[in-house]
Amino acid sequence: MVREHVADLRAIVREERGRWSDSALLARLDPGVLQEFLDASVLVRFDRNAVLVRQDGTDTDIYLLLSSYVKVTAKFGDGRSALLAIRAGGDVVGELAASGGGRRIATVIACAKEPVYAAKIAATDFLWLASRHPASLVLLTNALGRKLTTATRRRVDNSGRPPLIRLARVLVELADDHGVALTDESVLIGVDLTQFELGSLIGMRESSVLRALRELKQQNLVDTSGRRPVVRNLEMLRAIAYPAEDTVK
After folding, report:
1. Any keyword Signal (predicted)?
2. Domain closes at, from 96, 123, 156
3. pTM confidence score
4. Cβ neighbours of residue 135 under 8 Å, at least 6 residues apart?
5. What residue ranges in the chain does DSSP mark as E strands?
6. Same domain? 221 vs 197
7. What is the average pLDDT score of the chain?
8. Rounded to whole angstroms, how far apart are CA atoms 177 and 181?
């Protein structure tokens, strides 16, 4: 973690906020309220693979993500680990430990070529400010609900579906949420992802991911030769992910 000068915080927010999703928590906060949170924060930078939050840690700081991407991962009792989610600039991480107490339940790691800039705020300051602004507390609660709903929906929605459709769906979701257009048809997913991580997002074995990827590559729809996947034809991949019989319901 690298601390940056506080004056840079405002400049980074001005530069990055246009890239935040409209549904992201920071984008939905009243600008004046957001500034109060930022004023109580310290600007920090994390380069690729740096850890923001470590599973089982007892710290309770919260990170307002201003740029780039992080992975949320968890390790199970048998030593296996899984990718649970990807968060981007405009999102918040670490709020569960702050609001519920106890140890961290997941690890958060910077995962893109571009550094992660974040506003680090103490849990006490975060909760105090949220209590002063009831609308922000509602937005925070809704954001937590969406995170849980997305994870559950992904598992339920994919239950019983062929591996090819399950993989196509998560690639379309990643391209929609974190993609950068290369051409009219192709999209670069802006996050470093392994085949194992793709599988863990949808509860699929790596061997099944490999077979499904091979089929998508044969159709020239995806390229996973680099750190970051490329969807060569997003609309054709979307047609595979959501067949006609699924849309007529």
Report:
1. no
2. 156
3. 0.82
4. 30, 33
5. 2-3, 42-46, 51-53, 62-65, 69-75, 81-88, 92-93, 107-110, 116-121, 179-181, 187-189, 222-223, 230-231
6. yes
7. 87
8. 12
Token couple for 118: 């974040």
Q: Is the pLDDT of residue 248 over 50?
A: no
Closest residue by Cα to residue 191 from 200, 181, 178: 178
Q: What are 147-193's pLDDT values in tens digits? A: 767 766 666 666 678 999 999 999 999 999 888 899 999 999 988 88
Total domains, the chain: 2
| Of the candidates 223, 202, 228, the residue with the CA atom closest to the CA atom of residue 213 | 223
- Other CB atoms within 10 Å distance of the CB of residue 63: 23
Tell me if 24 sits within 8 A of 92, measured CB to CB.
no
CA distance 211 to 116: 33
Q: Which of 104, 136, 156 is the last residue of a domain?
A: 156
Instruction: For residues 154 and 170, give the distance between their C-alpha atoms in angstroms, rounded to a whole number.
Output: 8
24 Cα distance to chain centroid: 11
Q: Is the pLDDT of residue 249 over 50?
A: no
Bridge partners of 188, per DSSP, are 180, 230
